[in-house]
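Per-record layout

source: Companilactobacillus versmoldensis DSM 14857 = KCTC 3814
name: ATP-dependent helicase/nuclease subunit A
length: 1222
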Amino acid sequence: MPEWTENQKKAIFHHGHDILVSAAAGSGKTTILVERIIELLKNNENVDNLLVATFTDPAAAEMKERLIKRIKESVAQDELDPAQKQHMQSQIYKVAVSNISTLHAFCLSVIKKYYYVIDLDPSFRLLSDETERTLLEEQAFDNVRNKYYQKDDTDFIDLTENFSNDKSDDGLADTIYQLYNFAITNAQTDQWLDNLMKSYQVDQSITDSAFYQKKVKPQLLRDLDNIIDETNSLSDIAADDILSQNYVQPLKEGAKVLSNIKESIINGTAFDDIREELAKFKFPRAKAVDKKTKMLSDDDSISKSVASQKTDLKKQVDEQLYNSYFVQNESDTIETIKRSQVIVSKLVEVERAFIKEYDHLKNGNHALDFNDLEHLAVKILNSEVDGQKIALDYYQNRFHEIMIDEYQDVNTMQENIIQLLSNENNHLFMVGDIKQSIYGFRQAAPYIFTGKYQRFQKEDDPNELIQLSKNFRSSVGVDDFVNQIFKKILDRNVGDIDYDDSVKLIPGTNFPEEADTRNEIDILTDQKIVDDTQPAENIDLDESKNIDKRVSKIEFVADRIKQLMDDNYQVFDAKKNQFRDLKYSDIAILMRNKNSNTDLISYFSKAEIPVMVTDAQNYFQTTELQIVMSMLKIIDNPRQDVPLVAVLRSPIVGLNEEELAQIRLADRTQDYYAAILAYIKADNTDLATKLASFLERLEGYRDFANKNSLVKLIWKIYQETGILEYVSGMPGGKQRSANLHALYQRANSYEKNNFMGLHKFINFIQRMQDMDRDLSQPNSIETTDDTVKVMTIHASKGLEFPIVILLNIDDNFNNKDYTSDTLYDVHTGIGISVLNQVSRANVRTIQRSLISDQKQVAGVSEEMRLLYVALTRAKQKLVLVGFNKEPTKMLSNWEHVRTNQQGVINEGARINAHSYQNLIGMSIIPDPWTKNNKERDQFSNQKSQMDLNLINLNATEISGSKTKTQQAEEVPTSPIFRDTVDNILDFQYTHQDAVNTTAYQSVSEIKGLFSDPDDDEMARADIINDSGRYFSNQFKKPSFLVETKKVSATDIGSATHLVLQKVPIEQMPTEDIFTDLIKQLVESNVLKKEIAQKIDITSLINFYQSKLGKAIVENSTKVEREFPFSVLMPAEKLFNSTKDSSTSDDKILVHGIIDGVIELEKGIIVFDYKTDNVNSQNLQEKIKTYSGQLNLYAKAISLIKEKPVIGKYLYFLKVNQIEKLD
């Protein structure tokens, strides 16, 4: 017998009244539920007299399995008498058919048993596939829309226009679907739709309306309270900083004005008067800080932060109050509301028509969806037969207790069912955790839980609240970390519950001291983290690399996992009380959404880290699906260039880029399909044969598609192309194969619903993607596989892992729920924007603004609860990974956040946090103005078991991303390619070298071929390679991939050019500026130290002291350094061999990078600096060598800028000599 805590005993043994168990993460709620059932069974209760509702089917299956196991254990014990043992054994066989199920499954059993009560055809099937439901919904709306259009209903046309935009009229359809999702989860759907108009009932005065008094006014006062609190907090911060004290008085005066506006609202001041007060509001200007005060401190970071936050507060007043509620005067606002009432009335009419049509289509298909199960069950329970509610009486008498798991996630419809079944003969046992209510998008109603949570605590309430706060899952480090965060961010206003001692996590598992339970927050940055003592002017803002932050975070996580595995990280098994080596399956990567999954799968595959992604985003963006969908598209219509080329390049045909280019050259005027036909006709090469065979197969598929079903076509493609076998052999082959099989199943669902045709299927898939309803990848790996598990936080609920990596903590919260033009709320109804017929602008109603405010708070509350779920999945260690471009500013913002008397961060700061990273940061960085500094000491103490790491990617090499160069496979140039190039150039060739020259050359390639540089024309080359270029076709490896033992002249030249590119030129560069810049480049791993030491700083200083250098500084705003260009040049200007050509207008594409360009009004100056070892003997030779190159630069830049070149300069740094070319 386990040693139960006192509260666990209450949850197991207390009876005779309703009980709400608030069970924190890891508190063993499922164990408690099972144990409570066991105790009931021991007292001769039957399992089939219990209704146990779970949230998911797997949860129900797990509970049945655990219950059977506990029954068998109880029977094996000696404490039961023979009669009890016999009774318990009889229950084993009843568990399988018991009502331990989801509420949907229970409703289905009600319908199957009592369908006749409501005259329902019992031969229905369940629409369990989202594809089917989506198709039926779209068909229903199309039918409704067509009927209105046929009637030429002008109100409907106005409605459509109001919810549409210039690009599409699908806005009304989206509104209908979303409104349906809200309405259908309400027990009284019709009544809820009727009530939508109530919010728009305003007569002569807005402030006298019930809507304003009951809903808008409290929200305005709440918004004002938050802004006033933030203003006062900012004033306190300013008072504590010597350079910010000039802001104290303006902030106090602003707070006073806001308080007066608040009093005006409380006292019922007229709408337009309040509007005028808000319009005039501004903070008084702060006085300038005198020089004497400035000398007292050289740290102005707080002053700048105060100034910035003061501006933000003014914006909050403007956007949150004035623009949201008072942007129009009262008469115009009333007019907008009346116009809205007409629109909403018509919208409700169309919504009812849609629901009716959708039901009609479902009936025609003998189908029900999940929403139907709940509504029909309620209808059956409330229906009378011969004056008696036979179904309701049966279930109320049958169930002696009703147990609800995950009670925090029930919606109003489900709560209605629960209350219907409950009566004086049975009681409710509800288990949940409001801190884990994360299904708002399914219209979960956490206020149902919190209502009982507060009510059951009252002394006069007969029911009981039981708190389970002991966490038997996680280490002390995880518990302390979670508590430290949530005591700062969670309260009744934002989060729906106060995170006090009654709900905080209490460690219930002892980890040995030697166990690594340190949590880490790793914030990557691509900006140099600067020491406060370093002069700001020494920092080069262009120093950062162009880093893909999403990929960088994935690479970092892969590295961290490899490091943990390589270090033989030890996992403590609490059940066995022993350590063991870490396995991949001990690690879970959690994210808010699936946006990074495709990149993660790709990178982990390359890094050879086994991974299972439970729900990958961008299913139709995966390579194998793109290939098959492209194939389907060209079967439907082959004259589509992009899908056609995709199939040709894919393994189905297997062409390479050069072959594709050859085909295009066959006909450049028409589509690619025409080019293929032209190529086949003009050539008899193997490529032409391959293309002819492909077109023949394609025509066969098109003919097959006209005579057979879609699923047969897809399977035929799979069989004949071997695509299934091919992708199975690719990295992640098991998943890829599953993806292709899933496409077949999607198509099967599509046709089962009486939707036919390839073209319609392609359009359907496109609509799914356009609506961001991309279908998920199927799961192809068993959970028992030794793989890193990747999933959304939602999918992780109820699971646990030794190590949890929370990725992308810097991602912004989804604000779509409160920024869209049309918003929905269970209580307030619908808030719309009205299209102004004259200005064509959308005017947001105050109803919409109210819902926006409410949903923003609700959204942040749910994000906090999601964070709680994520962090509490960890048993031993948490790794949190984010990104920030300005870490110094980020840390400063966290430090300056204020808390209230309860230690909770101000409401406004929490609502505007925007990311987990900010919520966490504000919680763990102690407030510098807190009188009690114990918290700061704890943060810096090793006992805190938490590390905050700022990782500069510019100074860190992520080992998982080390690049390996591969030699490209050489493909012989085919005759048709060479011949076509010949025809394009149309020269009378006298030299074989020109035949092999491509129409694309870089200046760096061309300049090395000048034997007579002053002539700037290309002479005959002695060596021509097979690629058709006058240079080696092997790409030079990047310098960072080449290990060199000796610094070469080329290395020094490249480094010198880099310094000249980076050095600031707003003022004359000095030795100190050059020295500091080179130091920064070395510290950020851009330059190797040994190369940097070879840079001749004196020569750089001399350059800027020259006439050219001074001109560059004087015209710094007109200078472009390292100017890249790509321009078509006349071929005859590049080749001696073309001078006698009869054609003079043929072009070759030339590209390169010019060291520097000064663009003046009268023309352009081009300059190029050289680091060659020059002396008096070889100077003229060097000038000749580089003149051709610079002449090309001049011609190119003149063509691009459409200005004459008035100066061409070569500067030789070694000898400090400038040469102007003619």
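summary: Residues 409 and 474 are 24 Å apart (CA to CA). The mean pLDDT is 83.
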